[in-house]
Automatic annotation (TrEMBL):
Domain of life, source organism: Bacteria
SUPFAM superfamilies named in the record: NAD(P)-binding Rossmann-fold domains
Gene3D superfamilies xref list: NAD(P)-binding Rossmann-like Domain (3.40.50.720)
Organism: Sphingomonas bisphenolicum
Name of the molecule in the record: Short chain dehydrogenase
One Pfam family it belongs to: adh_short_C2
InterPro entries in the record: NAD(P)-bd_dom_sf, Sc_DH/Rdtase_CS, SDR_fam
Keywords for the protein's UniProt record, in alphabetical order: Oxidoreductase
Family: Belongs to the short-chain dehydrogenases/reductases (SDR) family.
Amino acid sequence: MIDYGLQGKVALVTGAGGGIGRAAALAFARSGASVLVSDVNDEGGRATVALIEAQGGKAAFQHCDVSDSAQVKAMVAAAVHHFGRLDCAFNNAGITNIAADEYDEAVWGRAIGINLTGVMLCMREEAEVMLTQGGGAIVNTASINGLVGNPSQPAYVASKHGVVGLTRHGALRWAKAGIRVNAVCPGVIVTPMTAPLVAKEDMRQLLDSMTPMGRMGQAEEVAEAVVWLCSGAASFVTGHPMVVDGGATAV
Ligand code: NAD
């Protein structure tokens, strides 16, 4: 694990109660940042805080449904309240609807509301704080489904393409203000989201074989990219949708 030199910095992570968000929260803390851990899942979020504290880091939990603007405002305020500033934000909370019909308007609306509108609400509040500080770094979680199509998940694909577009917009809007905005586009990663698929042996083999590297990714492999993008090592990188996909989109 590389130390990305985030001592004295403050990071905020949404959807940090498990999966990629938890791995990123732990990685931010290992690089020295204090972490505002946020999720709708209070138990998962508090467990992430406990894991960070157990490794000697500083963290606090704030419940937040990212599709609710008042809760997003309160979450960003909580980061400043607990730790005094906000330097890095990882807008990662998201849902998928593996079994549901995403052409159903309610299912569609929920996916867009969390995966896309949620990212917009977070970026809006985070940028407001970062502008007063003279800069910061934001990373949004898109997906390889934000870069290529998929025949079965219209809302997921549309929301993640939207996240890539919103990332490019934010990068341009705040480029001269010192705020960098990037995205990560994970391929298939082993997390609670993919657990129902991974649990089926034939499906696991199919998912492994679909990736050129012959395996699914680990949440920590996405977290490394996120912390790097937020660090000074990526000081000239903005507006970039970075794939972490074992070669899936290189095909
Ligand atoms: P996960 O289900 O383990 O984590 C998602 C987290 O988001 C959960 O802790 C959940 O409680 C939280 N969440 C759900 N709705 C929320 C809301 N309205 N407000 C706040 N938090 C909410 O899944 P994951 O795989 O870690 O997914 C994280 C992100 O990565 C998602 O945006 C997902 O779309 C994306 N992604 C995952 C994969 C994969 O293969 N796992 C691939 C590409 C992209």
